[in-house]
Design brief:
Layout: E1 17-24, E2 28-33, E3 50-54, E4 61-73, H1 87-93, E5 101-113, E6 120-121, E7 134-137, H2 140-146, H3 152-156, H4 164-178, H5 183-196, H6 201-209
Antiparallel strand pairs: 1-2, 1-7, 2-5, 3-4, 3-7, 4-5, 5-6
Helix pairs in contact: 4-6
Length: 213
Amino acid sequence: MRLPLPQFSPRDGNDDRFAEVIETSSTEFLAQCLESDSLKFPTMPPFGSWVKAQDEESGNTVYAVVYHATTMPIDSVHRAQALGLSLEELREQQPQIFAMLKTEFRAAIVGFTSPGDGRVYQYLPPRPPQIHQAVSYCDDDEVIRFTEELEFLRTLLQVAGVPVESLTAAAVRLVYQTRKADREWLVQAGRSLSWILKDDYDRLRSILSQIHP
């Protein structure tokens, strides 16, 4: 029998939280999206999107960038099968399907803020968010404040096992949009990438070709 993830209620001030940490490490965390009240699949966070989770013991807010997301059956033994139905037909004929699937995503940690001084630190926190901590999207002001410095680009380029060029470009595109097409910031980001990848022109060109101002 499936045990649902806790649903954070607006009364707790957590209505913006859409996922919960289910696996954690020093450099990244795995989160599961919370179930929807309606018959629909949990929204998969976009590749390169910015999320945050708080380590309640230290009070640090940990910032991360989504680099992998998947929807799969909660039962790892049985795979989903094609039914040839639209989403509306699924709701009418197979409503149980929505309770049999889960959406998970992995996010690479790029920095944190401390409650003591409120500063932004663009390196790994002393500890990641713990199991069952809530995850929410970063708001625009948080993304803008965090990306005043650009050291996070180096962190993204070191994420293992993923297309880091595409990940870095996606994160930069989202920041650029969030900053209302701030051309000066984009130029600075390009210069930082050029410095980091000064000995690898092919990777640099790959990233720049995927950024469309």
